[in-house]
Amino acid sequence: KAGVTQTPRYLIKTRGQQVTLSCSPISGHRSVSWYQQTPGQGLQFLFEYFSETQRNKGNFPGRFSGRQFSNSRSEMNVSTLELGDSALYLCASRKNTEAFFGQGTRLTVV
Amino acid sequence: EDQVTQSPEALRLQEGESSSLNCSYTVSGLRGLFWYRQDPGKGPEFLFTLYSAGEEKEKERLKATLTKKESFLHITAPKPEDSATYLCAVQAENNAGNMLTFGGGTRLMVKP
Fold first, then answer.
1. What gap in Å lies between CA B111 and CA B17, rounded to an integer?
2. Are strands B106-111 and B30-38 parallel, antiparallel or unpaired?
3. Most buried pick, A74, B95, B109, B111, via CB within 10 A?
4. Pairwise CB contact (< 8 Å): A90 & B46
């Protein structure tokens, strides 16, 4: 059974640019959540999508946005990148209780 | 506001030296407490879910327990391959979705 797939695995962007990250959940999972992981703040919740609707949102600025498609695949977008946005971005999918994470996208903003 | 605190931040053990990791939490109604293992550069790997005080779950050398205020991850006779960061997270009852609040993690190093 395939796990959660995130693309790309690594990304380098310049301040002010925008970026789009992709997440393909485990087949049959309709809930997709996004998290940001940094050494200083740990894992922080960004938002969750279920059946193409945002169900929950963390305490992040409006530059962070996301969406979910009818096949449950999800994308997150960060506009006007700042140096502090450098982090590991993790996607998690779930069907019932347990959340299963992808390998993450390592974003470096220079 | 939901809070999760893990201790210690780092733990060095000799192979075979058993120990416990602590996860203290404050949540307005616990829907579930989760333990994950994370290796460097990888996403968290699911280990256990605990739902109510008194519950225990085991997997190989790991055993997770839950009280009303904290959870412990007991590691029995650890091996070097158990070296990783262990993360604890809670999901609150008043959470409309599946948001998890994570602790800072415990970095475990097991020396041969």
1. 10
2. unpaired
3. A74
4. no
Report residue B69 as tokens.
Answer: 């205020």
Strands of B1-112, DSSP E: 3-7, 10-14, 19-26, 30-38, 45-50, 56-59, 62-66, 70-75, 84-92, 101-102, 106-111
Cβ contacts of A74 on chain B, cutoff 8 Å: none
Percent of chain A residues topping a pLDDT of 70: 99
At A26-37, the pLDDT tens digits run 999 999 999 999
Chain B: residue whose CA lies nearest to A102: B43
CA distance B40 to A64: 25
| pLDDT bracket for residue A1 (50, 70, 90) | low
Interface test with B, best of A1, A97, A106 (most B CBs within 10 A): A97
